[in-house]
Design brief:
Blueprint lengths: L2 E3 L15 E3 L9 H8 L3 H15 L4 E11 L28 H13 L4 E6 L6 H16 L3 E5 L7 H8 L3 E3 L6 H7 L5 H13 L3 E3 L2 E3 L5 H12 L7 E6 L20 H14 L4 E4 L8 H9 L4 E3 L12 H11 L2 E2 L1
Parallel strand pairs: 3-4, 3-11, 3-12, 4-5, 5-6, 6-7, 8-9, 9-10, 10-11
Antiparallel strand pairs: 1-2
Helix pairs in contact: 1-8, 2-9, 3-4, 4-5, 8-9, 9-10
Bound molecules: S-adenosylmethionine and 6-(5-methyl-2-OXO-imidazolidin-4-yl)-hexanoic acid.
S-adenosylmethionine binds next to β8.
């Protein structure tokens, strides 16, 4: 297959920086890091106006899509993601649990639907699924789909043939994040590399499953690296259907706990800018205001919606950490005149 070096104008800021070889269909030259950085640099009002204009061209500005998350296999993850409370090697208090029973998964999905969610996302703390792990997940996908919900899974890296099995079971979306810019990736995770992520994303796309792919803001990355993440996402061809933008949830016991203190703190305007830039560069995608909402006030969340976010995680828990409860989100939507999609 044809390959290309990433055409990034971002300076290599980390000792881990190395050229990334990616398949050409994932890399167009349309959004360079410099072009995305130029968006970040716009005066705040100009950036938000531009993002809101793009948003209105492609989406109903008063509708927000609701996805509910469930951790179907918690803890014991062999990876070393610096943000990850589920990594076996960190002492975050998250225990290694067995996979949930299918009846519990279906009951939780039913409740999510009754509460108004349109998509149900099942997460497992694996490097990737073994075939014997995948079988019960396929049953979960079938049953959740039969409830009339959209289905999403995040199970780690997929081997050839696994995405096809998920597609056949009725999987609508697969979440697999690039997390950050290629230049910063090695500072956060050493047990896999960027190319591994791109390979799985290619398998998901080839199987005809919608791609859910985004990243995290607030891990100590520079603005150039935030722009680098957005440039990578926006250069995928086709662009991801869903783009989760997470604000780092700092969990005690993980290496990135305390990351957002002092000089490294990310101002709310910078988070809103990241949402706006994602909206402008990926006009048709659903941009999800993802983890970190519990730490955000209502005004910041409202600014994110104004900047083009049109999806959230809904329900009092993300995977292992908290999320605003349903009543609080409903009250916020009422204040903003927002209705669920
Ligand atoms: N095992 C799967 C994999 O390898 O992709 C799932 C990993 S994780 C639960 C899915 C995504 O959630 C991560 O890629 C990251 O973007 C986000 N995430 C995980 N922990 C987070 C945290 N503490 N704060 C913000 N986002 C987080
Ligand atoms: C995504 O981008 N964010 C979600 C979902 N995809 C799987 C996960 C957020 C996890 C936050 C930390 C936790 O609850 O464990």
């Amino acid at each position: 297959m044809e390959t290309a070096q990433v055409n990034s104008s971002a300076p290599a800021t980390s000792s881990h920086a190395k050229p990334i070889t990616i398949t050409k269909r994932w890399q167009s030259t349309e959004w360079t890091v410099a072009a995305v950085e130029a968006l970040f640099a716009l005066p705040f009002a100009d950036l938000i106006h531009r993002a809101q204009s793009v948003h209105r061209e492609h989406h109903d500005p008063n509708k927000v899509q609701l996805s509910t998350l469930l951790s179907i296999k918690t803890g014991g993850c062999p990876e070393d993601c610096g943000y990850g409370p589920q990594a076996a090697r960190y002492h975050s208090g998250v225990e290694n649990e067995a996979m949930l029973d299918i009846a519990e998964v279906v009951a939780t999905a039913k409740l999510a639907k009754e509460n108004g969610a349109s998509r149900f996302c099942m997460g497992a703390a694996w490097r990737g699924p073994k075939q014997r792990d995948l079988e019960p997940v396929l049953d979960m996908v079938r049953e959740v789909k039969a409830l009339g919900l959209e289905t999403c899974c995040t199970l780690g890296m997929l081997k050839p043939g696994q995405a096809e099995q998920l597609k056949d079971a009725g999987l609508d979306y697969y979440n697999h994040n690039l997390d950050t810019a290629p230049e910063f990736y090695g500072d956060i995770i050493s047990t896999r590399d960027y190319q591994d992520r791109l390979d799985t994303l290619g398998r998901v796309r080839d199987a005809g499953i919608n791609v859910c792919c985004g990243g995290i803001v607030g891990m100590g990355e520079s603005r150039t690296e935030r722009a680098g993440l957005v440039a990578q996402l926006a250069s995928m061809d086709p662009q991801p259907e869903s783009v989760p933008i997470n604000y780092l949830v700092q969990v005690e016991g993980t290496p990135l706990h305390d990351q957002l203190q002092g000089e490294k703190a990310i101002d709310w305007t910078e988070f809103v800018r990241t949402i706006a830039v994602a909206r402008i560069t990926m006009p048709k995608s659903f941009v999800r205001l993802s983890a970190g909402r519990q730490e955000m006030n209502e005004a910041t969340q409202a600014m994110c919606f104004l900047a083009g976010a049109n999806s959230i995680f809904y329900g009092e828990k993300l995977l292992t950490t908290g999320n605003p409860d349903v009543e609080r989100d409903r009250a916020l939507f009422t204040k903003l005149g927002v209705t669920p999609l």
